[in-house]
């Protein structure tokens, strides 16, 4: 069975509000204890995958982005079951560089009634932006065909991602920054609450969890980046994380599962042995293209409510 990919958690500790795709500690416990699966330590899972001895019921746990709630909500659970998991982290948050990536998500989650409300504001800002830039607002696109592998996306989710990744690209952030400005949000203060801290990353590694690369800045369109830009991002990510944990990193998750031939070449050059996609498909023997199942799909599969 493919590794399970986790992002968001909700729960009282740390006061984490539910959001799209978020899970509770109880969901995680139910997955771990489910009779149809067996959760292995990530090292054992990749070892068995590599030598072809993996059983159908055997999976492992992977957590992406290094966000706070994984430390607050998920880590106590996996440590209670003595499971060693994989944490793929971006690293701009440990450097002087700024990126509002997680601020945007927090903003979306805490400053709007619901996601529809957020999308409404986003799309209306887009219309303003299109007008200002003398661009046509797209009207004839069938968003329901976009990202067919992500079965849990709504039509608006698909439209949002299409606008973000196919139309606006870097300008997507101009739209979000406009929205933040409108709400007068102190991003410097907010940022401190959103990430797993440096010393905690070190602690994760000391506890035996496997730290993985995830690029320095977490682009959502890595597949459109050239070699030099990707090299810069992965080398920074590797240098920052390896200096925190004091050992060589062998795992990587491609941000949003996006990659191209430059990415694969880089993985080999920087010594990554196991790299994870963000999509669920049959493993084809390529250790740099390991499929994963999203935790929300896993809940459905196991019929966990
Ligand atoms: Zn990510």
Description of the molecule:
This protein has 305 residues and is of the alpha/beta class. It has two domains: 4-97 and 198-301, TIM Barrel (Alpha-Beta Barrel); 112-184, no CATH class. Helix content is 44%, strand content 9%. The protein has helices spanning 25-33, 42-50, 68-80, 101-110, 115-132, 155-168, 172-183, 187-191, 198-206, 227-245, 261-269, 295-301; strands spanning 4-6, 38-39, 58-59, 61-65, 86-89, 210-213, 251-253, 274-276, 293-294. Strands 8-7-6-5-4-1-9 form a seven-stranded parallel sheet. A two-stranded parallel ribbon has the order 2-3. Helix 3 (68-80) links the parallel strand 4 and strand 5 (86-89). Helix 1 (25-33) packs parallel to helix 3. The longest helix is centred in the last third of the chain and has 19 residues, at 227-245. The model has no long low-confidence stretch (mean pLDDT 94). Residues 64-65, 214, 218, 255 line the site of zinc ion.
């Amino acid at each position: 069975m493919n590794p399970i990919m986790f992002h968001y958690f909700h729960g009282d500790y740390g006061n984490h509000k539910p959001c799209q795709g978020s899970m509770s500690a109880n969901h995680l416990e139910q997955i771990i204890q489910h009779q149809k699966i067996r959760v292995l330590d990530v090292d054992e899972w990749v070892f068995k995958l590599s030598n072809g001895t993996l059983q159908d019921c055997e999976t492992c746990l992977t957590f992406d982005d290094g966000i706070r709630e994984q430390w607050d909500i998920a880590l106590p659970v996996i440590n209670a079951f003595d499971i060693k998991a994989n944490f793929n982290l971006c690293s701009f948050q440990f450097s002087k560089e700024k990126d509002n990536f997680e601020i945007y998500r927090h903003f979306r989650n805490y400053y709007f009634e619901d996601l529809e409300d957020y999308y409404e504001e986003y799309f209306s800002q887009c219309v303003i932006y299109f007008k200002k830039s003398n661009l046509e607002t797209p009207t004839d696109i069938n968003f329901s065909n976009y990202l067919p592998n992500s079965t849990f996306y709504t039509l608006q989710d698909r439209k949002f991602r299409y606008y973000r990744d196919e139309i606006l690209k870097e300008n997507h952030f101009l739209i979000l920054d406009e929205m933040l400005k409108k709400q007068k949000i102190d991003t410097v203060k907010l940022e401190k609450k959103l990430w797993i801290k440096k010393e905690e990353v070190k602690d994760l590694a000391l506890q035996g969890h496997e730290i993985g690369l995830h690029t320095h800045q977490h682009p959502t369109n890595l597949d459109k980046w050239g070699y030099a830009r990707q090299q810069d991002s992965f080398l920074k990510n590797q240098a920052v994380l390896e200096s925190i944990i004091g050992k060589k990193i062998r795992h990587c998750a491609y941000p949003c599962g996006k990659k191209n031939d430059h990415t694969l070449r880089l993985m080999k050059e920087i010594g990554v042995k196991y790299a994870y996609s963000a999509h669920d498909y049959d493993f084809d023997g390529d250790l740099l293209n390991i499929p994963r199942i999203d935790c929300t799909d896993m809940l459905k599969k196991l019929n966990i409510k």
